[in-house]
Amino acid sequence: MRTERVIIVKPYASPIGVLLLGSFEDRLCLCNWRTTAEHGRRMDERLQTRLSATYLEGTSEIIETAQSQLEEYFAGKRITFQMPLLLSGTDFQRSVWKELLQIPYGSTQTYKELACRIGKPAAVRAVANANNANPLSVIVPCHRVIGSNRKLTGYGGGLEIKRQLLCLET
């Protein structure tokens, strides 16, 4: 008998927008803004394909932990997240996402700086694309990456949410 692989998902209404939280095998694999249907659809398809799994609405211990820590973050009481993560992507994407985890709360970095930090200074566009494909927004803080002119650029949740997250952290 074949067991179906599932990603347990649950919407979380943050103070600045709805996030879809997802867990797979006791690790958080999804924390994605639901502000644009197209971005959400692409993220959902990529994640389900990578994990050969389908979504099942419900909750899990890791989703409850994520929700609790996100509530603390939005209340200004948490600056780092502590939970097991599943970074589901290519080797390059995972290298970018791991580096995002090193950007301190309240700090920003440019796409160029991030490309240099992973040892690929010419890969600025690829770094931006990996940032956009990050399935763990807020938890893996892609909102802390800005343009080389130090202005806000692209964010899957939209620039207004990116601005609000950066304001929350200052």
Structure explained in plain terms:
The chain is α/β, with parallel strands linked by helices and 170 residues long. The chain folds into two domains: 4-73, Double Stranded RNA Binding Domain, CATH 3.30.160; 89-167, Orthogonal Bundle (Arc Repressor Mutant, subunit A), CATH 1.10.10. The protein is 38% helix and 19% strand. It has helices at residues 37-51, 61-74, 91-100, 111-117, 124-132, 159-168; strands at residues 6-14, 17-24, 27-33, 54-57, 109-110, 145-146. A four-stranded mixed beta sheet has the order 3-2-1-4. Strands 5-6 form a two-stranded parallel ribbon. Helix 4 (111-117) crosses helix 5. The longest helix has 15 residues, at 37-51. It is globular and about 45 Å long. The N and C termini lie far apart (53 Å).
Architecture blueprint of SSEs:
Layout: E1 6-14, E2 17-24, E3 27-33, H1 37-51, E4 54-57, H2 61-74, H3 91-100, E5 109-110, H4 111-117, H5 124-132, E6 145-146, H6 159-168
